[in-house]
Write a structure and sequence with these properties.
heterodimer, A: mainly alpha, Fumarate Reductase Cytochrome B subunit, 11 helices, about 0% strand, B: Cytochrome-c3 Hydrogenase, Chain A, domain 2, 5-stranded parallel beta sheet, binds iron/sulfur cluster
Chain lengths: ~220, ~375
């Protein structure tokens, strides 16, 4: 027997079992990675603290999002395209109404969406940014030398949801349930790969930034 | 039995040539064909014989037949319906018992190779006893009736895709017509129920051209099921602008905004509701304020709540997430403590390097 009797069957699977599996692996993997970091522990610091930890830690989480002029001078392309990519990606992820419905249903949070033309344009820009970064990686000799298969895997699983989302939105694959199913499946792939690759930075950046800020704060240094 | 042509029959009923052409015009638009096809249709109908139709009702609710019969006359639907020779339909026929079954057998014999079989309802395979007619299982009756059929029209989602009887956990082992019939053309006319105009449009096509219309990958005639509800929905501009009704009686609902958030399955549903509408073009579900349920699609009963947006997963993901958190904590702790142990062992086994280790005149061990 065929795996799926029709496109709807496939869509149902991606919205049902496949989602459960993906979200399960995502949660298990992420918790392992985070616990691993925390359980490694730190030696007790016996020195007298010269400042607080929490305030500077939290501040650092935000302030480190600003462009650092040194980095910009050294790698303007990466900074500019990197910002464009992240901003457009978050617009698509967080402000497309079907996505908001998903977040509302799973996490209970809700906010207003934006017209789909903006989401559409952001998708195109985000895809262009990702393609530009791939091109940069492939043409820059040092970057290319340093790149491992993981970098390309991460690129692919990030690009696919955008591409399939664009295809589904414009109904470029018939029948539509197949297009939507492929989109959902590509996101599930991203969720599965996430904890085991550098995509994990989306979570660990908060820990790392907070720790740096808190350490500086404790030592009474401006971070 | 059916030697009269359709034209002769209409003439007999006092329909003029002009009336006949009007009928052809209506029929052409019913089949969703361009107006330039009217002469072709007229020509075809002048010589078309009344086809014999055997209508088999299996695991169904009679909603599909009602959909067709309740379309008020005199309509084109009614006309078409009158002008097929419906030789067997156990809800409608006057004959009962043996006489009724005899009518079916007679129709098969008289029109061997030429008659149409319409099926509504699914066929139970788990146990034939779930649905029998005159002591005969649905499967046997289907097979027997199909021997001399020219084509089968599966009317309604139950016969086209299994429908309600097939919904999880499918107690009767219900299956669709197309999963059983491989050697005859099967036309699926899904919908719960299908739009009457679509049922008759498909009949009209067969009546006129003696052939089956072009079908999509799910066996549906493309003329009626070629576009999604969402693509032809008059609320679509609101979808694109991001304006959605959030409850059935909020401001958005009153202003006619998109029903996606209220669970409309229009984006994944292929049917003609948005263009042909219902009840003689009066209105259609989305126009009357309720989202599309996706009734012309396979598995629509199993696709989660009718009131959940299409983008929402419909498995028991809260439970999956709960298990995942527990597993993650246990595994994470295990990995964490193993790492700690590795660190401690490494620290314990660490020996300090002394200046002697670098001594040039150190004796070889
Ligand atoms: S009401 Fe349904 S079919 Fe109409 S635009 Fe909204 S989602 Fe699409
Ligand atoms: S609007 Fe949707 S659910 Fe309603 S009849 Fe049409 S296809 Fe079926």
């Amino acid at each position: 027997m065929e795996l799926f009797s029709n496109a709807n069957d496939f869509l149902l699977w991606t919205r049902g079992d496949a989602f459960n599996i993906a979200i399960g692996i995502f949660i298990v993997g992420s918790i392992i990675r985070v616990l691993e970091i925390f359980l490694l522990g730190r030696k007790h610091d016996f020195s007298e603290p010269r400042g607080t930890e929490w305030g500077p830690g939290l501040k650092n989480i935000i302030s480190r999002s600003a462009v650092d002029s040194g980095t910009f001078k050294r790698a303007p392309f990466v900074v500019v395209v990197g910002y464009i990519w992240h901003i457009c990606f978050f617009i698509v992820l967080l402000f497309f109404v079907p996505h908001i419905e998903l977040i509302h249903a799973t996490l209970g949070l809700k906010w207003p969406g934006i017209p789909s033309q903006f989401v559409d344009a952001s998708t195109v820009i985000a895809m262009a940014a990702l393609l530009a970064m791939l091109w940069h990686r492939l043409t820059h000799p040092v970057l290319k030398f340093l790149s491992t298969y993981e970098d390309y895997l991460v690129w692919l699983v990030t690009f696919l949801p955008l591409l399939t989302g664009y295809i589904a939105f414009h109904r470029m694959i018939d029948p539509y349930p197949m297009a939507l199913g492929l989109h959902i499946l590509s996101v599930e792939l991203l969720l599965i790969v996430f904890p085991f690759t550098k995509l994990m930075h989306a979570i660990t950046l908060f820990i790392a930034r907070w720790y740096t800020g808190a350490m500086m704060g404790r030592k009474g240094i401006e971070s | 039995m059916n030697e009269q042509t359709l034209f002769e029959l209409l003439q007999q009923q006092g329909v003029s040539r002009r009336g006949f052409l009007k009928y052809c015009t209506a029929l052409t638009s019913l089949m969703a064909l361009p107006a330039s096809m009217i002469p072709t249709v007229a020509h075809a109908l002048e010589s078309a014989r009344r086809p014999s139709v055997i209508w088999l009702s299996f695991q169904e609710c009679t909603g599909c037949a009602e959909s067709l019969l309740r379309s008020h006359s005199p309509t084109i639907e009614g006309l078409i319906f009158d002008h097929i020779s419906l030789d067997y339909q156990h809800t409608l026929q006057a004959a009962a018992g043996d006489a009724a079954e005899h009518a079916r057998e007679q129709a098969i014999k008289d029109n061997y190779g030429k008659y149409l079989v319409v099926v509504d309802g699914s066929i139970p395979l788990a146990d034939p006893g779930y649905s029998t007619i005159a002591g005969m299982s649905n499967l046997d009756m289907l097979n027997e009736t199909l021997t001399g059929a020219a084509a089968v029209i599966a009317v309604g989602t139950c016969s086209a895709y299994g429908g309600l009887p097939q919904a999880d956990p499918n107690p009767t082992g219900a299956v669709s017509v197309s999963s059983l019939v491989k050697d005859k053309p099967v036309i699926n006319v899904p919908g719960c129920p299908p739009i009457p105009t679509v049922i008759t449009g498909v009949l009209a096509h067969y009546l006129t051209f003696g052939s089956i219309p072009e079908l999509d990958s799910l066996g549906r005639p493309k003329v009626f099921y070629g576009q999604s509800i969402h693509d032809r929905c008059y609320r679509r501009p609101f979808y694109d602008k991001g304006l959605f009704a959030e409850t059935f009686d909020d401001e958005g609902a009153k202003k006619g905004w998109c029903l996606y958030r209220l669970g409309c399955k229009g984006p994944m549903t292929y049917n003609a509701c948005a263009t042909l509408k219902w009840n003689q073009q009066t209105s259609w579900p989305v126009e009357s304020g309720h989202g599309c349920l996706g009734c012309s699609e396979p598995d629509f009963w199993d696709a989660g709540s009718f009131y959940n947006a299409l983008s929402i997963p419909d498995g028991d993901y809260t439970r999956a997430a709960g298990y995942a958190v527990a597993t993650g904590v246990v595994l994470g702790a295990a990995v964490g403590f193993t790492n700690q142990k590795t660190k401690a062992t490494a620290a314990a086994q660490h020996t300090n390097v002394t200046v002697d280790d670098f001594s040039l005149n150190k004796k070889n061990k």
